[in-house]
Design brief:
The protein has 617 residues and is α+β, with helices and mostly antiparallel strands. It folds into three domains: 5-181, 2-Layer Sandwich (Nucleotidyltransferase, domain 5); 246-478, B family DNA polymerase, palm domain (Palm domain of DNA polymerase); 488-605, no CATH class. The chain is built from 20 helices and 20 strands. The chain has helices spanning 45-53, 77-83, 96-103, 114-117, 123-129, 154-181, 191-195, 198-201, 204-216, 259-266, 303-320, 325-340, 351-374, 396-411, 450-455, 488-502, 511-524, 547-555, 580-585, 596-602, and strands at residues 5-13, 25-33, 38-42, 57-60, 65-68, 71-74, 92-95, 108-109, 112-113, 246-256, 283-284, 296-297, 378-383, 386-390, 423-436, 460-469, 474-477, 531-535, 558-565, 576-578. The strands form six sheets. Strands 13-14-10-15-16-17 form a six-stranded antiparallel sheet. The chain has a five-stranded mixed sheet with strand order 3-2-1-4-7, with helices on both faces. A hairpin with a 2-residue loop joins strand 5 (65-68) and strand 6. 33% of the residues are buried.
Length: 617
């Protein structure tokens, strides 16, 4: 590990009662130097600047900031220090919080995908989730009132210094974990990028671009990001309407292996014939089978396609050897479509090729559906590269033969068919559930097959489902119960009380049963009702009266855990949200809680009330 690293944190006096980088006053600067292998605590600006000047890399948590959606939320430590005249010129600042915000969706740990597991981005929560610290070795507990106190006694100053040192120790452990986790990224970068620690500071798309440029010997030419209204969004993957609410039996999720990279390789999408190409060359334009916009050289594969082939074969080798670089290559290949469609990554950008990538993906998936339908399989649903079917023949060998027919049928039509292009069984399922509701939009309804025409009137949502595998794993796609904003109460009820029943084939429950659970759980632990609210800077909201803007105005930008209530305490317009502390200060109880959101989170699991006709009795 590079010794030119300083891990740092600050402690401040917060006069307004909530963090404000323009008003908060610096009290302590704590740090750990890998050069000296020592920790330090400073209170004067001269010493702070001196130790910063002595290091190239500055590592902290929530120091620089990150994007929430399209809004940039600035960090805390650096803006406070810069306001006081501290210079970070020529320094490489590594904000660990920013790394997790940008990369969690692609990070895999033993418990699962980190993006699915993270409920909040505090240092304490992240380090405990990763198992780096526990309650004893984690962030030190302290009276929060000290942060709002203008003057500290000698004893309180010592207490805050100890608190800051513990923060530094926890941040240092997290930094070392991050260095180890992403160390495999170094193998795919130029030496100069490794020396700048770009394996930590780049976005995933930026990392993939750097890896491609390194192998191709290109300069990393950068373009500009277009605004949303400058470019029409390319249509994505094909998604089918579900064929019913409940299925059981021999259900399979079969999917194309690395669909988009395989399209890029086999159709030579990086070898598009441009208008300025003068010489006569053979091209592929979909042949008689597929519709594409571009024309692609068909005699020799482009070097980027060759690179992707080599990487894919390396990935298979690494996977068999349990080498962590396998997952790094998967990340790069999966990011390759995104950078193909972004003018910022100028060396690879090709909007026509990007459009053809998703266009071919939709056609191949619909071709697979047609073959499976014609062979007698029940199509349940389809999501981009995955097709869910019921096997009425209960014959896996026969099904695999049909899958081979699909793959062979596609390969025969391509200029550069690839031996590793295939479909496989992603999951074997015993129960699968879909839910009524309205999709956000029906823009893709122009891309429908014969089953969609029949299934659309059922009113079932696309891309929203639950299934139980043969080995009792419960998989949830997109339902509100999976969202980070979902209350701990709903998650507790779902995972502890509903999931055991879902594994047995039951997913609808009476509202009385659920209401009793809600009140029982709240009686045991009122903290369960807090909701996660992630908000941007107040000035970034067009409507200053919407609930998110009001929460930002009262509590500041960032992530807050709040209780919806009927007592008009806290922030919001028609509905108020307050902190747990405000809830207790106002002596509120269960009946003061607004449970509307809980019922929205659990609504898909509520059994509809059956109203009988009088003549049925």
């Amino acid at each position: 590990m590079n010794n030119d690293v300083l891990v740092y944190d600050i402690e401040t006096y917060v006069p307004t009662g909530k963090p404000d980088v323009d008003k908060d006053e610096l009290r302590i600067f704590a740090c750990y130097s890998y050069k000296t292998r020592k920790s330090y605590v400073f209170k004067d600006l001269e010493s702070i600047q001196k130790i910063i000047n002595a290091h190239k890399f500055l590592v902290g948590y929530n120091t620089v900031g990150s994007f929430i959606g399209k809004n940039f939320i600035k960090g805390y430590d650096n803006p406070v220090l810069e306001r006081l005249g501290i210079s970070f010129k020529y320094k490489i600042c590594i904000d660990l919080r920013k790394i997790f915000k940008q990369r969690a969706a692609q990070m895999k740990i033993k418990k699962g995908m980190l993006g699915d597991l993270i409920m909040e981005y505090s240092l304490d929560y992240i380090t405990k989730l990763l198992g780096i610290v526990d309650d004893d070795s984690g962030k030190k507990k302290i009276d929060k009132g000290l942060f709002f106190k203008e003057l500290w006694t000698d004893e309180e100053t010592k207490l805050m210094c100890d608190y800051a040192r513990r923060d530094i120790d926890v941040t240092k452990k997290l930094y070392e974990w991050v260095e180890d986790y992403f160390s495999v990224f170094k193998d795919f970068l130029k030496e100069e990028d490794v020396n700048k620690k770009s394996y930590l500071t780049s976005s995933i798309a930026g990392f993939a671009y750097k890896a491609i440029c390194k192998e191709m010997g290109w300069e990393e030419t950068k373009g500009t990001y277009p605004s949303d209204d400058e470019v029409e969004k390319i249509k994505g993957g094909y998604v089918a309407y579900p064929a019913g609410e409940f299925f059981e039996g021999d259900i399979y999720c079969i999917d194309f292996n690395s669909l988009y990279p395989m399209i890029m390789i086999q159709c030579n999408l990086y070898g598009r014939k441009h208008e300025q190409t003068m010489e006569e060359v053979k091209v592929w334009n979909g042949g008689d089978k597929w519709e594409v916009e571009g024309e692609y050289f068909s005699e020799e594969m482009n070097d980027v396609g060759k690179l992707f082939k080599r990487w894919y074969e390396q990935r298979l080798e690494y996977k068999s050897n349990k080498d962590r670089r396998e997952y790094t290559i998967k990340i790069i290949l999966n990011a390759s479509y995104g950078i193909l469609d972004s003018p910022y990554y100028a060396e690879v950008y090709d909007r026509i090729a990007a459009g053809d990538c998703t266009r071919l993906g939709r056609q191949w998936t619909m071709f697979a559906r047609k073959i499976l339908r014609d062979k007698g399989y029940k199509l349940i649903a389809t999501d981009t590269d995955s097709v869910f079917i019921v096997d009425p023949f209960k014959d896996k060998k026969k099904m695999m033969g049909v899958i081979k027919e699909i793959i062979d049928g596609i390969k025969l039509t391509l200029p550069f068919s690839y031996e590793h292009f295939d479909m496989g069984i992603d999951d074997e399922i015993k129960y699968m559930y879909f839910f009524k509701g309205k999709d956000k939009d029906d823009k893709d309804d122009e891309i429908m097959d014969e089953d969609d025409v029949v299934n659309k009137p059922l009113g079932l949502m696309k891309k929203n489902y639950v299934y139980v595998t043969k080995d009792d794993k419960v998989v949830i796609k997109n339902l509100g119960i999976k969202k980070k904003s979902c209350s701990a109460l709903s998650r507790e009820i779902f995972w502890k009380h509903l999931v055991p029943e879902i594994k047995m084939g039951k997913i609808k429950f009476s509202k009385t049963f659920l209401r009793n659970l809600v009140y029982k759980k709240l009686g045991e632990d009122i903290d369960l009702i807090v909701m996660r609210k992630e908000v941007g800077v107040f000035d970034s909201y067009t409507s200053k009266t919407c609930s998110t803007a009001q929460i930002s105005k009262r509590y500041g930008a960032g992530i807050h855990f709040l209780i919806p209530n009927n007592k008009k305490v806290g922030a919001g317009t028609t509905k108020k949200f307050c902190t747990l502390e405000e809830f207790k200060e106002n002596k509120m109880g269960i009946d003061d809680i607004d449970l509307d959101n809980v019922w929205k989170e659990l609504e898909y699991f509520v059994k509809p009330v059956v109203v009988k006709n009088v003549f049925e009795y």
